[in-house]
């Protein structure tokens, strides 16, 4: 290790010398050192998870069209969306909310569809929900996707019994009223459920509880969430949003919560100009681009803050941080239902996704699950639909490019780069992470946050050598480049050859406002 550090210092000195000791952060010294021969923790594939709520057109229209639909479907789930989601290797899907989860009574959503109770979705647009998409349909979706189920239980308006019975219905093989009911409804064998959350945002839409009160309630609910057969629930306790570390501390320090939860959720949305002025998803200037980038990179501080508290009470890192809602939140598209949170998606969102995924990778030791909000037609979606048409967003393409990191091992990196300065404010202009997969291939993912300046990044890859380097880039000439139903391939990844690899040093010419993934193989 000492040898490696000496090498890095020598290299840094050389670069500084040859660039005439340029001033910090404005210099041409943009350098990412990658240590390839000392892999760190596994990057849980589950940080590449998604979130699908009964909200607007996410589930209905976006995923579920029903078996009688003219839109090609499998058991009512639209094929185009299904195939596209398979392509990005969705590892887990969170459902049914969000705020909706704490209003959802799962028994309304089982049995013959014509007999299911209709309810009003009070959080999202006040529309009538016919419950045609319920437990069986969701579990079928996860089966078709080949992903794990992440179910969010109802604490706010539900009972302990209701939640306990849901877990029994889903996962028990014993003879009981719940398992008999499941069999009557056509599912003989129990399903596997990996993640189960005990409420959502219980400090807000999930019941307006204090941290102390929630901590007690969570202990109570968790007591009755059984592990049936060999199913092992990863129970997710509701955590705070943003920088509210006090909530995290309350849950972590309570000795009675020990063993009652395996993961703690946090939510953080990137808001450009404040909640009352979120701005358009597509019509923005450089000031708004910058503010979005600044909000995005703050995810680093959010995670570090909660991590520090968790480290104090759980130094062995037995509990995971579950970032189960993240992404850009803009104003809804003009003319659409304000309760449906439908927003378009541009190159700005692609850079956002890259920044977040790089941060999650870098925190692989503590961040075990993350879910982008939300999968289809809501907030920073990966897919948009209009009747039988589908569009893959720039965010989708980043998930496709970054899937190589799933379950790979994190590589240590050291990044020094110039700032992207806007007025009197600045952020680091480069975002990066690297991993090595089970075949020994190294992947380096990068983003250039600066919308008008290309950056040359020098990457000494230390500890191993490689024969072949390939890459992909996602960029466009306009900051707000987007895909539409009329021009679905306006922005998509392209092969990247703006690099050189010589004597173990990779030099990457990053176009402005771009996302790049490089693959190094032996
Ligand atoms: O994702 C939209 C909403 O944002 C979710 O329902 C809620 O949990 C959060 O406030």
Question: What would you say this structure looks like, in words?
Answer:
With 522 residues, the chain is an alpha/beta fold. Helix content is 25%, strand content 25%. The strands form seven sheets. Strands 2-5-8-9-10-11-12-13 form an eight-stranded parallel beta barrel, surrounded by five helices. β14 (383-386) and β15 form a beta hairpin. The longest helix is centred in the first third of the chain and has 17 residues, at 2-18. The radius of gyration is 23 Å and the shape is globular. The relative contact order is 0.15. Bound molecules: alpha-L-arabinofuranose (AHR). The site of alpha-L-arabinofuranose has 10 residues, from loops.
Largest sheet geometry: 8 strands, parallel, barrel
Strand percent estimate: 25-35%
Strand tally is 27
Mean pLDDT: 94
Radius of gyration: 23 Å
Physical arrangement of strands within the biggest beta sheet: 2-5-8-9-10-11-12-13
Give the number of helices: 11
Distance between the termini: 22 Å
Poorly predicted segments: 1-24
Shape: globular
Structural class: alpha/beta
Question: Which small-molecule ligands are present, each listed once?
Answer: alpha-L-arabinofuranose
User: Helical proportion?
Assistant: 25-40%
